[in-house]
Amino acid sequence: MKKLKLSLLLSVVAFAVIFFAACNSEDNTPTNEISEITPEIASKLQAAYFETSSAKVTTFMGEKGVAVEDMFFTLAQIDELGEGSQIPNTEHYRTTNLVTGLPRVITVSVSPDLGTLGSNALDKTISMLNNLGAQLTYQRVSFGGKGKSKADIEVTEFYELESGGYITLGRAAGFPTRRGDPAKGFGINSRWFELSIAPTANELAGTMAHEIGHCIGFRHTDYQTRESCGQNVNEGSAGVGAIHIDGTPTGSDNTSIMQSCGPAITFNNNDKNAMLTLY
After folding, report:
1. How deeply is 258 buried, as exposed, middle or buried, from its count of CB atoms within 10 A (0-12, 13-18, 19+)?
2. Which PROSITE patterns has this protein been placed in (predicted)?
């Protein structure tokens, strides 16, 4: 849940959005030359089941690349999306790369720019994730560390206005790396805080959990239809970088925290099963 449809949100107390990530030192190839979405870039993203109509070139977390849905990829990361295999039309998917070295503690930090709300929400997110009983556990550390003191996943702030009746709440910096590390982090859109649908700590925690999900290898559960966003988009059957997770159901799962858009702010049973299957 990276986006919220404003026409729907105005009639509800609030919604939350989340999930995807990846980045590694081998993948941080400078992409300063890119200035527009080329047909080749669009084709690679579409083959990985991303809806590219609103994709754009931008700078995020110090790198230049492409923002698509609630994800950000450098050109090197987009090239990695070409790895995968065909999948059935079912729910709950993972990326080709996953976090390795289990059991493992993932450190997480949050920028002071997100204030007390961001700080409280991260604490709730970590508690929610650790309560799943997976072999990946999470520990909060100070923001801005260097070297070995730097968090595995950093939560930063960005500001982006609404577009086309939607607002992007969170944006993850790719997927897990080939080395088996989580994506380096994600951003939270502080524009959200200014609106009448401004989040509570619980709702923001749901969005953070969604984005951490992306960082450790989860795809949107409805990426083939984007029905939670009121769309019907299926990019085909290539199945690139979207592998079905054994034991998760077929059909729609509109209470999953990993929906593209939607109100879920906690993990449902299918989300828990998916997490425990992978980790």
Report:
1. buried
2. PROKAR_LIPOPROTEIN
In this prediction, residue 222 carries a pLDDT of: 79
The CA–CA distances, whole Å, from 164 to 46, 174, 198, 254 equal 20, 24, 19, 22
Domains of the chain: 3-278 (3.40.390.10)
Q: Cβ(74)–Cβ(28) under 8 Å?
A: yes
Q: Are 63 and 198 in contact (CB under 8 A)?
A: no
Pairing mode, strands 170-172 and 185-189: antiparallel
Predicted local confidence at residue 21, as pLDDT: 31
The string of pLDDT tens digits covering residues 176-205 is 999 999 999 999 999 999 999 999 999 999
Which position has the higher pLDDT, 166 or 60?
60
- Token pair of 118, please? 């961001």
Taking CA atoms, 215 is separated from 2, 11, 64, 90, 164, in Å, by 13, 31, 18, 21, 26
CA 9 remoteness from chain centre: 20
* Closest of 246, 220, 276 to residue 88, by C-alpha: 246
Q: Are 253 and 92 in contact (CB under 8 A)?
A: yes
> How do beta strands 56-60 and 166-168 pair?
unpaired
CA 196 to chain centre: 24
Spatial separation of the C-alpha atoms in residues 236 and 256, rounded to whole Å: 23
